[in-house]
């Protein structure tokens, strides 16, 4: 089977729409993520790296867009359910570290406004992205990882059905100079049908 790189196409579900991020998204993304709780789990490097202005968020988003092999998405509501008006930006997620030779990619750099935690937003985002990666792109492995101190993120990843592979000790330096341990998970193409069924059932 041929393997293709993700192309940043819009991914549309019942509750959310994922569009390739653009710099014009920075003001709305700043408003959505301007919350201590979002950065407490060391999203974007942690509290000390939290963007404190729209301009700073624009610089962060610009860096994402200019990183080779990185595909950042903006997460918008479709208006379904009682989550909020259609078009409202509620977060961001990215693909990166793509290797077509090894048929793998990293899904991460994900943050949502706290108002949508525990709703349909994260499971549908993952359903849309994983379906694109496994079915459209033909990839064989999707890696998801998080800071070992971020218990909420670990619980969300495990609820997806991803397999916990282990911990990389003293793996990445946080913005405050401390080093994090990284918990690594993966989903393989042979596991995707079962994972997909679970996500679809959660969204039913």
From TrEMBL:
Report the coiled-coil segments.
none
Matching SUPFAM superfamilies, A to Z? Acyl-CoA N-acyltransferases (Nat)
Q: GO terms for molecular function, please?
A: acyltransferase activity, transferring groups other than amino-acyl groups
The UniProt keywords, alphabetically, are: Transferase
Domain N-acetyltransferase intervals:
18-162
Extract the Pfam families matched here: Acetyltransf_3
Carries keyword Protein biosynthesis?
A: no
What name is this protein filed under? Protein N-acetyltransferase, RimJ/RimL family
């Amino acid at each position: 089977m041929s393997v293709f790189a993700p192309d940043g196409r819009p991914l549309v579900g019942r509750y959310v729409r994922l569009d390739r991020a653009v710099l014009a998204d920075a003001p709305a993304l700043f408003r959505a993520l301007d919350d201590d709780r979002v950065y407490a789990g060391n999203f974007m490097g942690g509290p000390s790296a939290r963007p404190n202005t729209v301009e700073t968020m624009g610089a962060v988003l610009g860096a994402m867009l200019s990183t080779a092999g990185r595909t950042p998405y903006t997460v918008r509501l479709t208006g379904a359910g009682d989550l909020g008006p259609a078009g409202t930006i509620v977060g961001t997620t990215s693909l990166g570290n793509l290797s077509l030779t090894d048929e793998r990619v990293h899904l991460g750099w994900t943050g949502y406004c706290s108002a949508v935690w525990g709703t349909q937003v994260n499971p549908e985002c993952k359903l849309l992205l994983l379906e694109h990666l496994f079915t459209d792109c033909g990839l064989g492995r999707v890696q998801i990882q998080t800071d070992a101190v971020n218990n909420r993120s670990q619980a969300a990843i495990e609820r997806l059905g991803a397999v916990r592979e282990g911990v990389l000790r003293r793996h990445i330096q946080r913005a405050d100079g401390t080093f994090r341990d990284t918990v690594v998970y993966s989903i393989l193409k042979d596991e995707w049908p079962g994972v997909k069924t679970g996500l679809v059932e959660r969204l039913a």
